[in-house]
Model the fold of this input.
Amino acid sequence: MKQLGFETRAVHSGREDLTQLGVHVPPIDLSTTYPVGSIGSIGECFDALAHGGPLRDNPIYARLHNPTVVRFEKALAALEGAEESVAFGSGMAALTAVLLAARQGGTHVVACRPVYGGTDHLLASGLLGMEVTWTHPHHVAKAIRPDTVLVIIETPANPTLALIDIARVAAQAGGVPVLVDSTFATPVLLQPLVHGAALVLHSATKFLGGHGDVMGGVVATNAAWAARLRQVRIATGGVLHPEAGYMLHRGLATLPIRVREAQRGAAFLAERLASHPAVSRVWYPGLAGGDPEGLIGRQMKGPGSLLSFELAGGARAAGRVMERLELLTPAVSLGSVDTLIQHPASLTHRVVDAKDREAGGISEGMLRVSVGLENPEDLWADLQRALDGLVSLERLAG
Ligand SMILES: *Cc1c(COP(=O)(O)O)cnc(C)c1O
Done:
């Protein structure tokens, strides 16, 4: 049979056995333990799961396996074009598991700034005993050592929305696996595995859930990596709750239309912001000059729904704009149905050293917007009022 279209997979994947079960929506299995019947074969079931293998016939205990979570994992793998995916209680739990699994082969990681503030902190703090070399995406080859076990990139990057050529990084990494944090892109706009990545990470808390009410993380990859990740998950306990698994699975059904509609709003706002006198710079891959390597079309299907802009008046002006907004919600996170705005230097990237922040292009006057599904005209009216206020204040000040 012909490969089903992306939208069809988003609606139907992970639901293949529902008809046979006689239900229309996936059941939520809240069991923490399962009656084991005979003690003869249960040991083998346990061994298989504990080594990251597939379910034999009894899940035994909820930290080992949960059928509701597995449905979400199957569906996400289908959207990423991956053999399997493994879900965790948060994006950071997912990243931690990847680092712990990789660490069995060595302790050196290569990463490109800017990345999510929490990722930067986890790597830079040495909390997991990993050593990091930060480098530019074009210079990855020079940073690789014999003990390098992973290359970590994020595209579009947070919060500069810089795009990275994944195939180019993978070629430079040689045999070292490349992990792409694809939280901002979602599988609707980017499928990193096609371009040579070995692992795709999502903070499912963002677009996959899509409504700001569920936390989770997921890694899409091949069967061998997935088994190691499940083994780590069982040993360290960073599991996704089945109710969260249900909600994330449900979120996937509307993911394509949510992402495209929010992207339409972001493109509109980026244009408007770029022509406002109080704004000195807009970061959005869809604007002229925003995609210098021509990756939209070749690697990404569109520029996405996040944008950042810089106020000529710096941090003070950024604070004033945030205070004046009525419709946009001042809050961290992203990928929700409503529009969120935040100040990276004082919030999401606060844990990053000021020097590293500046080097990564994160200025004090920068605000990041995650555009939601409101009418874009209403969003612009709110932003414009706040920005016009700045311009008149500056005039008053002479
Ligand atoms: C939010 C986020 C994370 C961390 O995910 P949590 O679900 O908050 O643990 C990682 N990477 C990116 C790009 C994110 O936006």
Remarks:
- The first helix runs from residue 6 to 12.
- The two ends are 70 Å apart (CA to CA).
- Residues 1 and 31 are 36 Å apart (CA to CA).
- The mean pLDDT is 94.
